[in-house]
Amino acid sequence: MTIEGWQILVICLFAFIQILDVITVNVGLGYPLNAGMITGLIMGDVTTGLAVGATLQLMVLGVGTYGGASIPDFTTGAIIGTIFAVISGKGIEFAIGLAVPVGLLLIQLDILARFLNTFFLHRIIKAIDRLDIGAIERNVLAGALPWGLSRMLPVLLMLLFGEHFVQLVLYYAPGWLMGGLKVAGGVLPVVGIGILLRYLPTRQFFPWLLIGFFAAAWLKTPMLGVAVLGIAGAIIHYRNVSSTEKRQPQDTPRPAVLTTSGEITDDEI
Q1: How far apart are CA 163 and CA 102, in angstroms?
Q2: How many CB atoms lie within 10 A of CB 29?
Q3: Are the beta carbons of 230 and 221 closer than 8 angstroms?
Q4: If you ran DSSP here, which 8-state letter would residue 66 be given?
Q5: Which runs of consecutive H residues, i.e. helices, occur in 89-247?
Q6: For the segment 217-257, what is each residue's pLDDT rounded down to a tens digit?
Q7: Backbone phi, then psi, for 258, in 5-degree steps?
Q8: Of 90, 95, 143, 93, nearest in space to 115 by CA
Q9: How many Cβ atoms are within 10 Å of 36's Cβ, its own excluded?
Q10: pTM (whole model) above 0.90
């Protein structure tokens, strides 16, 4: 089977749009399962697309880009794997074998897209100082380009140059470039988590932070289990706050307080 020009165009547009969906409204286009299904629909083989997408979805269950972390992009891997599985007719194993290195390669491009966006961020800051609303809007929209192109260009190159493109890039890419991007990718999660801990009411809920860390780091509790602990803590906190409010006069305000360290001490804000 050969791929038509209109299929290349539609798939590239989908690759561009799905990452924007992930970082904005998140209706589900960025899930490997949905990406495989949509790509299979475009290629005329929904069954293969669902099988590839579902297999890769299992590899990212409970994994999230918390704090700016970059993870293997198995969504784009599902797109590429489905395409070449349908074209070659080699089956699901071939698709998964191709999708995994694609996902690993796109970790680096995800980091690169994040850093390229700092250019538009600085322009937005300067526009805010000038109160230039038009410039702010233009640069916010332009910030979507690094994200979308970081997914669309690899898909386009794979479709144009074949399945060996990923192996060639990994083989010939300079070591300093890949090493630098890996270092940056390791720093980003730490910076992101540090920002979250600064602005979230960490001191107020410090015991729950310790419980979550102990469960994840020592007991190897899956992310779903940590989420259940978080829900339990939220329920306990809600009940405590509700019982306290019932004992207080109804006209007594409870203003949110922003400490000098920047931490919000009341979640009502």
Answers
A1: 10
A2: 17
A3: no
A4: G
A5: 92-130, 133-142, 144-161, 165-172, 175-199, 206-217, 223-247
A6: 888 887 778 888 888 888 888 888 888 777 766 555 555 55
A7: -105, 115
A8: 143
A9: 31
A10: no
